Amino acid sequence: MSSLESTETKRFGISITPENKPIVIASGFVLVILAIGTGYTLATQGTATLLSPTYLLQQLQVGSFLGIVAAGMMLVILLGHIDLSVPWTVAASAMMATAVGGPAAIPVGLTVGLTVGLVNGFGVAYLRIPSMIFTLGVNAVMRGLMVAHTGGFAPQTAATDLMQWLAVGKVLGIPVAILVWAAVSVGMTVLLSRSAVGKSIYMIGNREAAAYLAGIPTRRVIVAAFALCGMASGLAGTLLAGYSTKAYQGMGDAYLLPAIAAVVIGGTHILGGRGRYLGTVVGVILVVLLNSVLSIMQLPEAGRQVIYGCVIILMLLVYGRGQKVTQ
Amino acid sequence: MKTRSAMTDLKIRASQNVGLLTAIAIFAVFYIFYNLNHPRGFSTAVLIQNSNEVYALAMVAMAQTLPVLLGGLDLSVGAVMTLVNTLASHVLNGTPFEMFLGFLACVAAGAACGFVNGCVVVYGRLQPIIATLATGAVYIGFALFLRPSPGGDVDGDLSWAMTNDLFEIAATYGFAENGEAAWFKTIAWIPTPLVLLILTAVLIWMPFRRSVTGRTVYAIGSGEGAAYMSGLNIDRAKIAAFTLGGLFAGLGGLYLALQTSSGNADIPQAGAYTLNSIAAVVVGGTSLLGGVGTAVGSIIGALVLRTISFNFRIFEIDPLLQPLIEGFVLLAAVSLGALRVLKVKNTLELFR
């Protein structure tokens, strides 16, 4: 079925296939959010701040951290699993990277993420413990390690210059963080649509037993996907430390649920096997813009939470509905 | 002959509930160990304090059990608890009749949140995990409307009576000769939260489990298609399960308000309760795949999680190491499920 759809996509270019529908609708919704926000600023301040390149680039820069986390999360969700260890993987990478400092900072941050990902993958693929609960346990352990390491306070160590440059620097007027996100995105696109591992991930997400019988080393693919997800969290943590020039407790907490929301809004099925990477990018942009416009409108936190939740449900009701069980 | 078949019956039942029995054993060992080492171990005061700390988590864990039995997950239990907590901090005061109305409002609010979750899942045909992720944000938003900053006013007598032993209820509200009656003496030491916990399990959970709707929940978790083909009312059972889950979470929030005499729309706390509820459900022997487990098991799971922290206080473990030990215990507890891998004879059996 998946091959049928892909040939159809090739033949008609960007025609609206079931796989593209969420992306088209989510993109349309991004425009709606921009229009509403612009209408608001025109009415109150008389300027179209939201349409200025500075504002849009700034939003993309903020969104790139979420985008990198969501890219890793998408790999795991495509498998039909989930990674709840993101919050403290992000924080641990940031803390370790700043603690080590010097030229080794970024490799250390990535290694922390990779290690957590490998542990997650081992528990899920070989020990066959549901990812939901195993990654939850790993998250608790990482939190414990970091509390023991830092004494429960924000570490005093600062991010290296390279980390800060990657997070806030600019090349030809474009924030470097966006370029990092773009590089990750290119990697993800190649991985998912051009590589054998990518195809295996979709197959495992549809039915692991069938993938196994077809000769795919499913357990190794699962470990690889979790490892990449961990590395993505590690990279996001390292960049985030650069962005705020230091690491602090709970810095990753704000990235878990929005990342899952972005992936799902982008049309990836939460039970795995279906979804395109472009959708995740659109989902991230939607989540970031929605938050930004709501804060421009100076809504209290309460109203933002309610609208945020309602928008996710609304988006999913439009295209995320499952099949009714009839047999 | 008859005794032998009874023995085999017992054996089968035990083998079906290995997870739950392990949890009970772990709890018993940890709790006895705790009391043996506590300077005032096995005393009413310690028991009251412990039951107070357990009740809210136990309720949230029971709430989480129902969606998990369906094969889903509810990420909004902590949010529902928080919402009802903030509501209770507004309405649990005034005359006894007003307080009773307030109590009803809190219970209804919890059930309504669960009902909305159920409707979104059933009629919206969304996956529970992602639907409740969104509704959870909405409920937290409402909680923030009700309590932008922590505070509130909960009737002091009610709060005192509900978070102590039965004697204090009698003394506060003046029955059984202010708790001094001879017949009352034998039960006066029992902590109220413990009684409430048992009442919730016996009066709400047990009848639900035995009802057709309750058994349908189990059937859906085992195989939704088969349940549908058997003519069971799937939609009704799902909505009922989520509504009951919301009710349990609401009771947890209500109790939290009595315990702290205030309401607090604490987002990190809501998240922590949601995640701990999943852990408690799994430790209590309920399968995340659905169809296997009980809410009573989840109570035991909550007891296990809390008892571990009780022990920290006794042994004066460096507070900085406590989260690490808690994390490792949690990871080890859920990793017990990995023993299944060793028993698998055919690799295909792994991919369920």
TrEMBL record, chain A:
Keywords: Cell inner membrane, Cell membrane, Membrane, Transmembrane, Transmembrane helix, Transport. Its main location: membrane. GO terms for molecular function: transmembrane transporter activity. It comes from Hwanghaeella grinnelliae. The chain crosses the membrane at residues 23-43, 64-84, 104-126, 133-152, 172-193, 221-243, 255-271, 278-299, 305-322. It comes from the Bacteria. This is ABC transporter permease. Pfam families: BPD_transp_2 (PF02653). One of its GO terms (cellular component) is plasma membrane. It is found in: Cell membrane. It is a multi-pass membrane protein.
